[in-house]
Design brief:
This protein has four domains: 105 residues, Immunoglobulin-like, CATH 2.60.40; 139 residues, Immunoglobulin-like, CATH 2.60.40; 117 residues, Immunoglobulin-like; 104 residues, no CATH class. 22% of the residues lie in helices and 39% in strands. It has nine helices and 33 strands. The longest helix has 29 residues.
């Protein structure tokens, strides 16, 4: 009997839910805000047992989605009846001031579709610089007009008269620029200052060196930040005027702030760049030397090349060096050192070439040249290193000159090959006695200790010297494998793989490439039409990340890159 009663009660409770009509509503927590404030938007579905599926894309016309959706499920008992509800919540930021509208949205729950009612929002203009706002971001460029490849230093500072904490920072999008972060610390530190006679606390949010990769009028998008601003609660304690008690009722409000956008004019070079110009812009010096100028045939010599100065040290390459004939040259190793304590990108590029002369005589390495555009002088300048002479003497075991020496062919001369005696050595037996096994072990151990370091050194030297060659041979296979992976940012991901491929394939010293540098490096190496395809693709990766055509290109971007690299690899 009790079991029957329980089933009856259970059925009555849930029948009220099953037979109740589901409802959907859309609400906001406030409908009048300033341009820098956010609103909470909620979609509530009652008498449902599934989470609503909402197409929120129509909202993006007038609002930026700061966060969400946050899901919540509630069950309530009202007058003996149970009510179930599910909600989705977003935080929205208005894109402009004026009368804005949250349009009617389509909400799907199972096989049913509901439409919410539109909601009107009044957005007032926030206080600007002229009104001496309590909270704002100032953007400060060191110049407004720059040459192609010249450094632009941009600083973003947060001014506030309020107590706050920084929740999130969205760094400015700089399409058409190559960026280098200049921040010394990732955590902003506030200090007291005055601006036009008004006291503020100020912190540097971001400082970057930006190098333009194309000419014309360029725009750097605003920097945005979300702050939790401390405000006094509307609730007040009765009978207490003490600040201590009032401080217990303080609350924080999420506030969105945004800097101005930045317009920059990038000027072309006043003259046509020389043929040996690889994109270096700034002021540089070059030097070269060898670790020894007097060697024997087949002995290694290290050629050091150092380029130092201020400018876009990550964005250009050293011109090819004309080495003498009969001298084998291994691909160089390169390092870039940067002065971390300067706002201008200053440092040095170091390259080391392993040279092996294959015949005796006197060899001369011609001066190494570098052509750069001097922004202060407004013209191209070519600098040269000193001439390097190397005297190569005959090898100790060589009685004649060996030509056409290579890694694969070795000619053994002189007395390198000796007569091999097949008889047992005199020390093998002593009368009828055989030498004990432990003596053989000592001989073998001593021989191994002598020969192993030499063999190991030769093997490792060979592997090190051929590492660039092996990377070049495997560049396509690794690139195609990487392009099959899924990523949240296909444009940046694809660009990095393309640059890595050409860095390995062309034996470049740096992966920090750009479309202009890549165009120069592919000159006379592949068909001009194919070069144009490669440059167009990397430009798409650059501009497509933030441009309107991003969504159209995203699906096929990685597959297009794979097919293009296959075509390029057949030529290189």
């Amino acid at each position: 009997m009790y079991k029957s009663i329980f089933i009856l009660i259970f059925s009555l409770i849930f029948s009220s839910i099953l037979f109740a009509q589901p409802t959907v509503s859309a609400t906001v927590d406030i409908n009048r805000i300033s341009q820098s404030e956010t609103i909470g938007f909620k979609i509530l579905a009652t008498n449902v047992d599934v989470t609503p599926n909402v197409d929120i894309s129509p909202i993006k016309k007038n609002f930026k989605i700061v966060s969400g959706p946050a899901q919540q499920t509630n069950i309530q008992w009202i007058n003996g009846a149970m009510t179930s509800s599910r909600s989705l919540s977003w935080t929205l930021l208005p894109k402009r001031a004026g009368k804005l509208n949250i349009p009617s949205l389509s909400v799907k729950m199972g096989n049913n579709t509901f439409m919410t009612k539109p909601i009107g929002i009044t957005v007032t203009k926030g206080a600007g610089r002229g009104d001496m706002a309590n909270l704002f971001i100032e953007v400060i460029p060191d110049k407004r007009k720059i040459y192609l490849g010249e450094q632009l230093t941009v600083t973003y500072r947060l001014y506030t008269k309020l107590n706050l904490s920084i929740e999130d920072i969205e760094y400015p999008k700089s399409v058409g620029f190559w960026n280098e972060d200049l921040r010394g610390s990732q955590t902003p530190r506030f200090k007291d200052t005055q601006l036009n006679g008004v006291s503020y606390k100020v912190a540097t949010l971001y400082k970057a060196a930006m190098f333009p990769t194309q000419t014309g009028k360029m725009m750097i998008a605003p920097m945005t930040a979300i702050c939790n601003v401390e405000k006094s609660s509307r609730r007040r304690t009765r009978g207490f005027a003490d600040p201590f008690f009032n401080s217990m009722f303080r609350e924080s409000q999420r506030q969105f702030i945004q800097s101005d956008s930045l317009n920059i004019e990038v000027l072309p070079y006043p003259n046509t760049p020389p043929n040996d110009f690889t994109g270096a812009v700034g002021q540089f010096s070059i030097d070269s030397w060898v670790d020894t100028s007097n060697v024997k045939v087949n002995e290694a010599v290290t050629l050091h090349v150092k380029v130092s100065g201020t400018g876009n040290i990550y964005n250009f390459n050293i011109n090819p060096i004309n080495f003498p004939q009969n001298m084998e040259v291994f691909p160089p190793t390169s390092t870039i050192k940067r002065d971390e304590f300067r706002d201008e990108i200053t440092g040095e590029i170091n390259l080391e070439y392993i040279l092996i002369p294959r015949m005796e005589g006197q060899f001369r390495i011609s001066p190494i040249t570098l052509t750069f555009f001097d922004t202060s002088a407004g013209r191209f300048i070519t600098i040269r290193s000193k001439t390097t002479d190397i005297i190569v003497n005959p090898g100790s075991a060589s009685k004649s000159i060996v030509s056409n020496f290579s890694r694969e062919n070795v000619t053994i001369l002189g007395e390198d090959i000796r007569f091999i005696n097949t008889k047992n050595p005199k020390w093998y037996k002593r009368g009828n006695q055989t030498i004990p096994i432990w003596i053989w072990g000592v001989y073998f151990f001593s021989f191994s200790m002598f020969i192993f370091p030499s063999v190991y050194h030769r093997v490792m030297h060979q592997r090190i010297s051929t590492v660039d060659t092996r990377e070049a041979n495997n560049a396509l296979r690794l690139s195609l494998k990487m392009l099959k992976q899924e990523t949240n940012d296909p444009f940046s991901f694809t660009a990095s793989i393309i640059y890595q491929y050409f860095k390995s394939k062309l034996f470049l010293s740096s992966i920090n490439l750009d479309p202009m540098t890549l165009d120069y490096q592919l000159k006379d190496k592949i068909d001009p039409e194919l070069t144009s395809k490669v440059v167009s693709l990397v430009k798409l990766c650059d501009s497509g990340r933030y441009g309107p055509k991003a969504e159209k290109s995203m699906n096929s971007l990685q597959s297009d890159a794979s097919e293009l690299l296959k075509e390029v690899d057949k030529t290189l």
